[in-house]
TrEMBL record:
SUPFAM superfamilies, alphabetized: Glyoxalase/Bleomycin resistance protein/Dihydroxybiphenyl dioxygenase
Record's protein name: Methylmalonyl-CoA epimerase
Record domain VOC: where: 4-134
Coiled coil (residue ranges): none
Family: Belongs to the methylmalonyl-CoA epimerase family.
GO biological process, one term: L-methylmalonyl-CoA metabolic process
GO terms assigned for molecular function: lactoylglutathione lyase activity; metal ion binding; methylmalonyl-CoA epimerase activity
């Protein structure tokens, strides 16, 4: 069902500080830094050189009360989730529910670049998974 890895997300304390490594040292140019109030985060996508390649998403929690802030406090900076692109998010949601996978969404949520659902790490061998449907490109 998944087509490709869309992004690998890294949780950081401060995006600007993290960019001193990812942009200035590694040479990845971020697209705009954006606030996602519904998720209580700021994020920046870092595309690789090849068009259509998988990206890195830097995530900074914006509220000290959020589950992401608690995760950062407990585990420190590092891997947060992997996002797999799917063709049809409604079908993916139905399939995951019917297979008994612990899905964190009853309906797809609005993600930065499409519609997404999250699968709880307890059902995926310890990794938070995001499944994402991106808008179809006009032919
Ligand atoms: C959508 C916008 C953007 C995009 O790509 O477009 C993003 O990706 S924003 C990303 C931020 N949004 C989310 O992460 C949404 C889904 N996440 C959640 O709902 C929570 O963070 C959740 C449920 C994963 C964890 O919340 P909480 O700690 O309150 O839940 P539980 O008590 O059920 O579970 C705690 C248990 O899970 C471990 N945990 C938490 N986060 C992760 C993680 N990212 N990877 C692996 N494990 C994780 C946590 O350490 C606890 O384990 P324990 O053994 O009990 O210590
Ligand atoms: Co993501």
């Amino acid at each position: 069902m998944p087509r490709r890895i869309d992004h690998v997300a890294i949780i950081v304390r401060n995006i600007e500080q993290a960019l001193t490594f990812y942009r200035d040292t590694l040479g990845l140019q971020p697209r705009a830094i954006q606030d996602v109030p519904s998720e209580q985060v700021r994020i920046a996508f870092l595309p690789p050189g090849d068009p259509g390649g998988s990206e890195i998403e830097l995530i900074e929690p914006t509220s000290p009360d959020s589950s992401l802030a608690r995760f950062l406090e407990k585990r420190g900076e590092g891997m947060h989730h992997i996002c797999l692109e799917v063709e049809d998010i409604d079908a993916a949601l139905q399939e995951m529910q019917s297979q008994g996978v612990p899905v964190l969404d009853r309906e797809p949520r609005t993600a930065a670049e499409g519609r997404a659902i999250f699968l709880h790490p307890k059902g995926t061998h310890g990794v938070l998974l995001e499944l994402l449907e991106k808008p179809h490109e006009p032919a």
